[in-house]
């Protein structure tokens, strides 16, 4: 069997950048080609840095990247080039002066469309910690791998976790102090309030400030042309959910829950909220459905099993699938490379979910 693109990308993901993330999570790999011949595979790729300044930092890592690919069984030769995309930044470019967290501007009329964005899907849950952010990041990556132009907005303003899960920690630029340039990771255009805050800085805002911040993240970020924008909501049924559903034309919402009764109780409240706000519910996902012991293979249903499917049937809503609880999913999220970006068996469930949404015209 030949050398696959996935194997090469996985090897390149092992090359860490000094400022955080790696060559793949920072979306620097271009023009990857693998030519198989009798003597083995010749692999070529370009490391494209966003600016000449970053290229100077990344260039010394090229030998390490080549060595990582050369170590893959079946690779005979590796050729890489480091280039910079775009002109050199002006010296001492002003730091974004954009102030996130202002009062919302008055709004008239019903929910608005966002220019350039074809579909918007909100991903919510009733209870916290059920895996809504994990599902959002993995689904975004799985959709991008299937060729969709995907954006991911971390609207979990009190506990933004997407920067860590997607492996980005650069502060987004804002050359004019108004428009925020989103970052790219694993083929996904992303933005999170977490990228604008210092580590460990808490957000202590009242409702209007939160709504203002959400409005800024939706309208001041240069999202570009997207097939779908996924919005990772905070848990519960608060200001963010209300503002989003009332102001923005959503394609629909997906609700994530574990099968545990206490999670289901809260998930039903989230569903009720979406129904009351007339946001179509695209379906329910059961996360942490079963746990398969990596040592002995024994399956345990830690949080129960099947409760989300039963609720979907009872409410006549689509059941979008079950996702297992595995160590690999947690580790992948913590390392900044969602499991859906890898060849691990767990990636398959996200690929199926992405395929289902694309086939249904939802993504
Ligand atoms: N299927 C899974 N297998 C293993 N670990 C998982 C899985 N889903 C989520 N986790 C882990 O559970 C924790 C909580 O997940 P996550 O942050 O995605 O939940 P959340 O619902 O977004 O939480 P919050 O309420 O904080 O927004 C994380 O450490 C994550 O890595």
From TrEMBL:
Record-level Gene Ontology MF annotations: 4 iron, 4 sulfur cluster binding; ATP binding; ATP hydrolysis activity; ATP-dependent FeS chaperone activity; metal ion binding
Species whose genome carries this gene: Pseudotabrizicola algicola
Pfam family, one: ParA
Region described as Disordered: spans on this chain: 87-113
Biased composition (Low complexity): 87-96
Family: Belongs to the Mrp/NBP35 ATP-binding proteins family. In the N-terminal section; belongs to the MIP18 family.
Entry function: Binds and transfers iron-sulfur (Fe-S) clusters to target apoproteins. Can hydrolyze ATP.
PROSITE patterns: MRP
Subunit structure: Homodimer.
Binding-site list for ATP: 126-133
GO biological process, one term: iron-sulfur cluster assembly
Protein name as it appears in the record: Iron-sulfur cluster carrier protein
Signal peptide segment: none
